[in-house]
Amino acid sequence: MKIKSLELLVILSVLALADTCRAGLQWEQTQIELHPAPGAATAVGSFKYKNTGSNVIHFKSITTSCGCTTAARKKDDVAPGETGEITATFKVGASTGVQQKTVRVETDDAATPVTILALRAVIPQMLELRPSFVYWENSEPAKPKTIMVKAAKELRATSLKVSSSSNEFVTSVSSAGQNEFKIEVQPHDTSHPVSAVLTVQPDNGGKPVYATARVVNPTISAQ
Question: Which residue among 63, 103, 119, 166 is least enclosed by CB atoms within 10 Å?
């Protein structure tokens, strides 16, 4: 009985040693969700790891899923017991809504040579236009048409600045309630086709959004 118990202990020890030798980079998490502050230029997440094995692990490559995301590491080799992190940075730009990016990490760890890290950034819509396109048919009365704007409360906008890419249109802005504004768009005349891009920007210097105004030829009914 004692011999069998000793044999079992030896087997368990060998298995435990084998597991230790096979262990490599252990990640605290491979998925991160970020909620950057309104108007932030970047969203940054850190993926922390530890080498729980008995061998040095070498990073072969780290690549991202798009040009708007970068990934950086402070070391190329991770000694046994050593910790570190990979920092992923997403450039927000004009992006809004949920943005999902990945980082592909390749090492010389035979057990897990490739690890995919996922970065999920939730970018709030600061200004919402309803609608974002207004038009008049040729020779239609040149009356104003309305674009409603809803601003996120985090934006703290008190007014809007609207500019037109064409002097064929005039615009005016008025308050329509808390965090809401009304833009009146009017062409000088509708005798000829013309279009303009309207740039809508909050007074606090936040990111602009865009609408389109156009005079078009009347729709021709099928004969």
Answer: 63
Which two structure tokens, joined as six digits, stand for 8? 């079992």
pLDDT reading at 197 higher than 80: yes
pLDDT tens profile 106-137: 999 988 999 999 999 998 888 899 999 999 99
Strand partners, 50: 26, 83
| CA atoms of 77 and 196, how far apart (whole Å) | 55
- Sequence-distant (6+) residues with CB within 8 A of 124 are 38, 96, 152, 154
What is the model's pLDDT at position 152? 83
Tell me which fold the domain 127-216 belongs to: Immunoglobulin-like (2.60.40)
